[in-house]
Amino acid sequence: MAAAAAALSNGSGGDSKAEFAEIYSRLKEEMLEDPAFEFTDESLQWIDRMLDYNVLGGKCNRGLSVIDSYKTLKGVDVLRKEETFLACTLGWCIEWLQAYFLVLDDIMDNSQTRRGQPCWFRVPQVGLIAVNDGIILRNHISRILQRHFRGKPYYVDLIDLFNEVTISSDMYIHTKHIFCFLQLPEALISMSRLNSRQLQGSCWILSLLTREKRISQNIT
């Protein structure tokens, strides 16, 4: 939990950030102990480090907005424990998705730094192993959703929404790099379009959770 707490130590919203950091530690531990993955000691240490390096480090505004927005939609200042956990879990799924985009986009852009430190693929001994790490990040989202939302009436909708946001953003990134490769004027296309896709994804998830009265009143 120390790494997550340190990454979220700046700014306001201390209580929400502390809860958010605590949930990250739990989700990471679940991924490291997932029986679907046969880790050696070396690969376990690698994934542990990779998650902290890439999922943490940003402001986590996308993930934290899920908690704050859900409180606003419910008209309450404090969520029940189960509601807080599920809202934080969805928020971290968005942060995992953002990490997936950034790891792969940095490779394609041949970038040097990300969030004040070397891009993951530029870390010694990582290199193009980062491609597979990006895929692992995306697959973790499915595992997290399956573990914590499989019994919910909106589980399939969540899977569809994350897939929709992923393919929309992936296709935009593809188009951006094709334009750059061909040296077309469209290479100057604004990144705000990609950001709007990700923000739209967050809004879709929030609207899904409050679509029906029984869900807006009780996320469980």
TrEMBL record:
<dbReference type="GO" id="GO:0045337">
    <property type="term" value="P:farnesyl diphosphate biosynthetic process"/>
</dbReference>
<dbReference type="GO" id="GO:0004337">
    <property type="term" value="F:(2E,6E)-farnesyl diphosphate synthase activity"/>
</dbReference>
<keyword id="KW-0460">Magnesium</keyword>
<comment type="similarity">
    <text>Belongs to the FPP/GGPP synthase family.</text>
</comment>
<keyword id="KW-0414">Isoprene biosynthesis</keyword>
<dbReference type="InterPro" id="IPR039702">
    <property type="entry name" value="FPS1-like"/>
</dbReference>
<keyword id="KW-0479">Metal-binding</keyword>
<dbReference type="InterPro" id="IPR033749">
    <property type="entry name" value="Polyprenyl_synt_CS"/>
</dbReference>
<dbReference type="Pfam" id="PF00348">
    <property type="entry name" value="polyprenyl_synt"/>
</dbReference>
<dbReference type="InterPro" id="IPR000092">
    <property type="entry name" value="Polyprenyl_synt"/>
</dbReference>
<dbReference type="InterPro" id="IPR008949">
    <property type="entry name" value="Isoprenoid_synthase_dom_sf"/>
</dbReference>
<dbReference type="GO" id="GO:0005737">
    <property type="term" value="C:cytoplasm"/>
</dbReference>
<protein>
    <recommendedName>
        <fullName>Farnesyl pyrophosphate synthase</fullName>
    </recommendedName>
</protein>
<keyword id="KW-0808">Transferase</keyword>
<dbReference type="GO" id="GO:0004161">
    <property type="term" value="F:dimethylallyltranstransferase activity"/>
</dbReference>
<dbReference type="GO" id="GO:0046872">
    <property type="term" value="F:metal ion binding"/>
</dbReference>
